[in-house]
Amino acid sequence: MGVAFALLGYNVTKFQQLGEETDSSFGTGKQWKPRHFKVQDDLHKLKVKVKNTNLKGNVKTVDISDLETASERTELGLRKHAENYLNAINRQVLTVSSTDNKEVHSKEPPKWGLHFGASQKQLILPRVPVEPVTVQAYSKSALRVSQSSQQVEMDMKIVLDQENIDSKAVLKQQNCETRLPLITKKKSAPMCSQKIVKGHTVSNLWDLPASHYMGSPLPLLEEDITKGILSLTEQRLIPPAAKITLQTPPVVSKAAPFHEFHRQHKKSAVGEISSRVDPENTDTITFPSPKEAIYGTYSSSKGNIAPLPSSSSVVSARKSKPVWTYPAQQLESELQVPSQTQPPQISPCQSLQDPCFDCDIAVYHGTIDQKAPGFLAFRRHYCSSWGSIVFFLENTEKLLKDYAVPLATINSKKLVEVASNFKLNENPTKSDILSVIKNQSTVEKILNRPGQRYKGQGGTEMAATKIQATWRCYQARKAYVCFRQQQWASGVIAISWLLHNHMARVKKTLKESRQRHLENFYIRAKHLAANWNRIRTSRRTIIHIPSLGYSQCIREHIPDLALQQNMQMGRLCDILDANVNVIYICPLHLSEELLQYYNKLLGLQAAVRSGNPEDMGDLQDRFKILTPEAINSFPKHHMCLATQLKYSPKTIERIKILIQSRHAYIIGGVPHKDDLAVADMLNVPILGSVPEVAHLYSTKSGSKRIFASACVPTPPGESDIYNNEQMISVLSQLIIDNMEVQRWLFKVNDESGGNGTAYCDIISHLKCYHWVQKERQRYSPEIWSKKRAHEPALVKISQELPGLLAQHVQPVNEKRFPTWEKFLQTFLRQGGVIEAFPLSENVTNLTVDMLIEPTGKIEIVSSGDQLHADGPLRSSGTTIPQCSVDPAVLNSLCLKIGETCKSKGVLGYFSIDFVTFIHPRTMEQQVWATDLDLCYSDQLALTQLMLYVTDGNPDCRSSRFEVSLGSKKMKSQRIQHEETKTPSPKSNRCAVASSQLRHSSLSVIYYNVFLQMCKAHGVGFDLQEKQGTVFILYEDQKRYRLGMITIGEDLQGVLMTFARNLFIIHQEISAPNMQGETNFKMAIQDIEAILGITAENKLKSEEEQPLKADALKE
Predict the structure, then answer these.
(1) Quick check: pTM over 0.85?
(2) Within 10 Å of residue 667's Cβ, how many Cβ atoms?
(3) Three-state DSSP class for 219?
(4) Which residue among 318, 816, 1032, 1112 is least enclosed by CB atoms within 10 Å?
(5) What are phi and psi of 854, to 5 degrees?
(6) pLDDT tens digits, 48-60
(7) Alpha-carbon Rg of the chain, whole angstroms?
(8) What backbone phi and psi angles, to 5 degrees, belong to 850?
């Protein structure tokens, strides 16, 4: 009995030591395997001895049963510890010691030895060389059981099997070690550790890779071999789910080096990476620090074995399941979805693959700490896409090193998203790298800092390279710029030379062409002069081209140039001669309404001669109105009509057809060089002057030279003024020489129609005028006539004139020249004249039209006194014939000027402007020649229309206009007395004509309505009396301008009728509150002034008649 209790105490003590040693062995992992075998043997022997003692001695059965219960409890605890150890083995890759390592075995011999020998043949397995484990390999092997872990698992199952003690002997070797199979790498295509691995890494957890298949059976004991595969599987020498045919592993494991540590395994500290699971699940796993969990070492006799994790570091999923399960079944249960009643056991790999995993990676001075716990956990978590992440991180490190960025924090979640979007070998850009950095603004400021690149990795070399590259770039750029400049210069020179040559050729061609045109002009002019007497009496065609061939700068400032060129529709009336056909070139498209109007107007020729409206005929075959097609091609180029006709080949061809087999010549307007070109194209002569001659003597200065050569009286003045100093000095001298002149006129050379005229009443604004008069009275007339006496007065006037002119000069055309400065600029650029205005308040301007025939004959074809509806210095109409100057005096002056023009080469039609007034001192009539226009005038066109509708006979030498009145008898009476015909009586007629009437309200009424309105008010023409009113219509688009001719017996009656017509038209087309823009009122005022002068002259003539009669009686 005492022996039994002693043995029982011994067993209890032994059990306590066994528990402590077991806990210690599992905690530290030192010499666990030999002690495990010894403990198993001792427990088995102890159990047998207790049973034997119970049979021999008198110990109570209860005590023996308690002892058996304690023994079974100890064995169960041992199994639990072994199971936990195997679980840890399944999660880690173990490195088994080699046979040459005897260090651990020699240090501390095992306390318990095996009681059975190792006489049986031992089981020798092939050695498995395992490479160091990387984070990527570790993370990919989390769901995979390696061959070495399976072998250790089978060894432990054999050791724990109490019933099969003999099978434990196969594990015993000389140095008490376990040799695992040697895995040799298959030498296939080399694999890069940085390659991106995507997809599942393991097809079946229990399928061994093909590289582990050795092609030879394992060396087993003979008795185990004879038992067959089933026995080996039951003994766990071969896993139940093992396959014979193995596949190549997708990921090759590497050996992980282990380091010694002499402390108990602890839980990971705060801040280490932990798996993130459902917060309601309390069964979470906190991973140890990588150095303790992965790099911890265990010294064994033959190698380094991973330490067994403590029971407190792993939450077991089997606390409620005391039933033993094999490792394969355990792994399968872990892969299954855990039930709601039992909390799942989550492995470290499962925790790391949580989609909520997120961490920051710090980059210090461009370097990532790859041994940091966070980085290692991040690496394990994203092992499947680690290749792209590493590639992205390498570029990030390089960028941060290059720019010496001290600290950058990378958002791992953003990193994975960005890195996964890159293709193979596609380098990320700077913006891509900055997008994954948390402190992006700070890093970006550093990157954008000037010179920052040269502070980082290889900064000195980069700076040197940059300096060299910049210098080479500067040299290359300098050379390139020089080359480009030379190339540009050569190009410019070449292009300029080509343009110069081309321009020279064009100029030469034009010069030759114009010279040829001029030569042909002279040839045809000689032929025309030689045959003029025959041509003027034979059938002929006159081509009227009313072109205004002024210079381009003047044409650009003429409003409605085409309309101004179409104001001579009276040219059509040349068909009054039965031998003449007319081709009128019109600058505007005329509507059918206008064409019909002129057909009726020109068809009155027979009715006018007979006095019977029923005799009106159709003369459309005698005149043609043609419009050049080029007016549509050049609508805004301000071309003259001759130029447009030159570029209108269709019109040219039609003219050629119309003038076939007939004599023809051209009567133009203001001559232009293109008139010669058109004449050369049509091969017809021009009844006109050469353009150069016409432009020279049509200017204000040129006309002064003509008048001076003709020795006709002209206003005091000077010509050819081209600078301001000359103008001031000339004007000062003119003021001193003509102290009685109140107003002085400034006329621009090339302007016409009063547009380039300005006036100033200098005497009334000259402050030194009275001083000059006193100075003049100081000297006698002989001394004052000398220039030296004028010097003080010249100086004083010259100082005062610039300011006076700037304030008081008034341009006639204020729209064209709103200020004196603009007028002066044009005046000095084109040149001009300064002349005195007549001394009288009552001044009459008159115009005389003359013709120099090709034979040299000079004749006056029209004359008339001017009307001024737009101001005192602009002509807007005329009274035909003139009655303000003695015809003999006027004819004498005109013939002198005509002879001078003939001597200068002037040919064709031209007009002379005169001014007449009564001199206040001598009370004699003065006639001054003021202007010369070498062109066909508007007055001449109106005169032609007047002659056509009256069939009259003008006598310009006597300034009379007579018409023959038709018989008033009926047709039957004419038939009875046709044998006793008598000549028709003659009657004087005069006319008031204007081509410049304008009214803005005319545009709102059509011409047929306008003519009906005039007819209703008695405004019309009497064919029998050959008096009345005729209208000239120009165009039907704007319709704001028209011409009007009023014919009557005496001038006073005609003027009143003309004014009455204007008043009626104005009243009919204007509303009381909308008078419109018109010159009708000024025309009426001017007519009233003329009527007053006419009445005064009539009274004077009536008073003078008795005196003359008395003188004759005496």
Answers:
(1) no
(2) 18
(3) coil
(4) 1112
(5) -60, -25
(6) 665 555 444 444 4
(7) 65
(8) -130, 160
